[in-house]
């Protein structure tokens, strides 16, 4: 960056022509500051990981706030180092986080049980009963499924519940005092009516009428945050909130915040996929494929979640709990080997080399008989209550580096394909464009080419593909200045008007190879069930 560019950006920072997005991902909390041209001008992050607490995946409150403050401080430090400016204010702020899960509070605002994340699959009974009651899929990770399962389990805390929200909603509440939620994130708590952009009132009545629920001292509508569509001011940063975000006291209160959103919504924004018949695949620790629907699905499908865009339009989602955790573990093993022989390599070289091996000329289209299951946690789409990562092969399988890495990538995309096939093949959902999004697309062509084979559709990757949800949330924060136009038009005409992209069409040989692998993947699932029975979940 030239001195002139630094000076221009410094002036934008002083003038508040900036927007800050902070997203709590599964493995990283990231803060991204953008200018009014949607360029990232500073960033900071904090790595963290979920842990098992009483058999349930969780993060502590201490981790939430330490991670938030660290990511913010690193971003603010980036601003001071690059532009010589102390970050006393920003134009707008928005928070996003991994969707769903369960954060329940009592009347005094105290957390009643440890945060139950989207990874938990202990709510199967609630999922089945509520889906049948509503004739609408209620996934295991949705907040209402967690609440109802706690009711069914006669958990002691249930009668004390005064408010439930998501992680993004929790952080926003503590920084603004507002019990609100972006409509996209809210649609992962309880079904949203796309016509009114609020909760389905008939479903709420049915829920409250359930015998076990009716016996509680609360009504569901009084427990839920108020849904807000993108572009709606969602409160201002209080003095207490400013100190919670920036304990140094440099950041001043009064900043207007955007509605807090889920990672699905920020993924849609970051890929310009909020218009009907567009879709995106957002890949990280978990993976989801989303398509904005023209109309509701004809039938109830447990494999497809019905959520909304940040603007409130209905979208179908195939969500898999597992994606990169197992893949990263194997790549890490190769990195350790390189270091052991005295040839350590940086992460970019390591991932790039291994990924490119997966599409080399000498690989077998169907992975040569190798098989992998990437399940670190339970996976509803595959009918698994818990996860056990494992790799298997037949004695005659062709074991090579290329086939091994191709197997890793094929298996990572296989769970999400289950729900996507339901939408496109069973329901005839039309998709005009599908955009890949996430760090896995940083290596050119590889993941893009494999995803095109998995879905048998062209996959576009934008230059912003590795920006992530924090950048998407920063864009939603900026949208507060432009909410006089529809979100889809704002993205088309302002944010992505000059965006560079590449498109990878499906290769017929790759498509056939993926289908052969996918058939083997599904037939081999009993191996995973046996592993669950044979291998302890936790190492003593």
Describe this entry's structure for a reader:
- A hairpin with a 5-residue loop joins strand 17 (305-308) and strand 18.
- It is built from 18 helices and 23 strands.
- Helix 10 crosses helix 15, helix 13 crosses helix 14 and helix 13 (401-426) crosses helix 17.
- With 540 residues, the chain is α/β, with parallel strands linked by helices.
- It has three domains: 1-99 and 235-253, Nucleotidyltransferase, domain 5, CATH 3.30.420.40; 264-322 and 418-504, ATPase, nucleotide binding domain (Nucleotidyltransferase, domain 5), CATH 3.30.420.40; 324-411 and 508-534, no CATH class.
- The termini are far apart.
- The strands form seven sheets. The protein has a seven-stranded mixed β-sheet, with helices on both faces. Strands 1, 2, 3, 6, 13 and 14 form a six-stranded mixed β-sheet that branches.
- Residues 20-212 form the Carbohydrate kinase FGGY N-terminal domain.
- Residues 280-479 form the Carbohydrate kinase FGGY C-terminal domain.
- It comes from Bifidobacterium adolescentis (strain ATCC 15703 / DSM 20083 / NCTC 11814 / E194a).
């Amino acid at each position: 960056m030239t001195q002139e560019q630094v000076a221009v950006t410094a002036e934008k920072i002083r003038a508040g022509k900036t927007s800050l997005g902070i997203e709590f991902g599964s493995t990283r909390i990231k803060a991204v500051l953008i200018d009014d041209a949607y360029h990232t001008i500073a960033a900071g992050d904090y790595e963290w990981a979920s842990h098992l607490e009483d058999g349930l995946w969780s993060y502590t409150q201490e981790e939430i706030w330490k991670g938030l403050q660290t990511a913010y401080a690193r971003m603010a430090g980036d601003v001071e180092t690059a532009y010589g400016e102390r970050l006393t204010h920003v134009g707008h702020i928005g928070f996003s986080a991994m969707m769903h899960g369960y954060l329940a509070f009592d009347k005094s605002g105290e957390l009643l049980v440890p945060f139950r994340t989207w990874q938990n699959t202990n709510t199967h009974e609630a999922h089945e009963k509520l889906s049948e009651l509503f004739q609408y899929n209620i996934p295991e990770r949705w907040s209402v499924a967690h609440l109802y399962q706690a009711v069914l389990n006669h958990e002691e805390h249930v009668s004390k519940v005064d408010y439930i929200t998501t992680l993004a909603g929790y952080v926003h509440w503590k920084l603004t005092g507002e019990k609100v939620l972006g409509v996209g994130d809210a649609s992962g708590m309880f079904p949203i009516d796309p016509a009114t952009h609020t909760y389905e009132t008939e479903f709420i009545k049915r829920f409250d009428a359930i015998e076990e629920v009716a016996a509680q001292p609360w009504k569901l509508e009084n427990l839920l945050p108020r849904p807000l569509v993108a572009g709606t001011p969602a409160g201002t940063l209080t003095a207490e909130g400013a100190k919670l975000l920036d304990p140094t006291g440099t950041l001043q209160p009064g900043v207007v915040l955007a509605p807090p959103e889920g990672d699905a919504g920020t993924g849609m924004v970051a890929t310009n996929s909020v218009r009907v018949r567009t879709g995106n695949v957002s890949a990280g620790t978990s993976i989801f494929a989303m398509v904005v629907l023209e109309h509701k699905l004809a039938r109830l499908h447990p494999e497809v979640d019905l959520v909304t865009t940040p603007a409130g339009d209905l979208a179908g989602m195939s969500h898999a709990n597992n994606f990169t955790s197992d893949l990263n573990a194997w790549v890490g093993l190769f990195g350790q080997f390189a270091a052991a022989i005295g040839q350590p390599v940086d992460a970019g070289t390591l991932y790039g080399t291994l990924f490119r091996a997966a599409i080399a000329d000498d690989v077998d289209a169907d992975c040569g008989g190798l098989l992998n299951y990437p399940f670190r946690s339970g996976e509803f789409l595959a009918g698994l209550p818990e996860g056990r990562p494992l790799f298997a092969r037949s004695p005659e399988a062709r074991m090579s580096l290329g086939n091994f890495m191709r197997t890793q990538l094929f298996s990572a995309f296989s769970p999400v394909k289950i729900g996507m096939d339901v939408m496109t093949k069973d329901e005839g959902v039309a998709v005009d464009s599908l955009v890949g999004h996430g760090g896995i697309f940083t290596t050119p062509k590889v993941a893009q080419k494999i995803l095109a084979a998995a879905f048998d559709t062209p996959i576009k990757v934008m230059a912003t593909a590795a920006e992530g949800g924090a950048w998407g949330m920063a864009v939603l924060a900026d949208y507060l200045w432009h909410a006089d136009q529809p979100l889809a038009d704002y993205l088309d005409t302002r944010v992505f008007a000059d965006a560079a992209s590449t498109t990878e069409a499906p290769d017929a040989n790759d498509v056939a190879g993926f289908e052969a692998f996918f058939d083997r993947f599904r037939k081999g699932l009993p191996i995973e069930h046996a592993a669950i029975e044979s291998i302890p979940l936790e190492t003593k």
